[in-house]
TrEMBL record:
Signal peptide: none annotated. Pfam families: Ribosomal_S21e. It is found in: Cytoplasm, Cytosol; Rough endoplasmic reticulum. This is Small ribosomal subunit protein eS21. GO terms for biological process: translation. It comes from Balaenoptera musculus. Belongs to the eukaryotic ribosomal protein eS21 family. It comes from the Eukaryota. Component of the 40S small ribosomal subunit. Keywords: Ribonucleoprotein, Ribosomal protein. GO terms for cellular component: cytosolic ribosome; ribonucleoprotein complex; rough endoplasmic reticulum.
Length: 75
């Protein structure tokens, strides 16, 4: 596919899971994307199906929020 500048671009750009940088597949319909909001800033976090299945999505979101300074380290 070509964009307005006549450059060839991909139709599908895969996303990565935020905690482990694994690629979320096109057919992974159980993955979610969550926006963590601060004042004047928004961080987007992607959670894949494998993490959902293990029941660790809430722990992963807490880890990422602590790493980005949204929550305090001793929360």
């Amino acid at each position: 596919m070509q964009n307005d500048a006549r450059e060839f671009v991909d139709l599908y750009l895969p996303q990565k899971y935020s905690a482990s940088n694994r690629i979320i597949g096109a057919k992974d319909h159980a993955s979610v994307q969550v926006n963590l909001a601060e004042v004047n800033k928004v961080r987007t976090t992607a959670i894949c199906r494998a993490i959902h299945r293990m029941g660790k999505s809430d722990d992963s979101i807490l880890q990422l929020a602590k790493a980005h300074g949204i929550l305090s380290k001793n929360f």
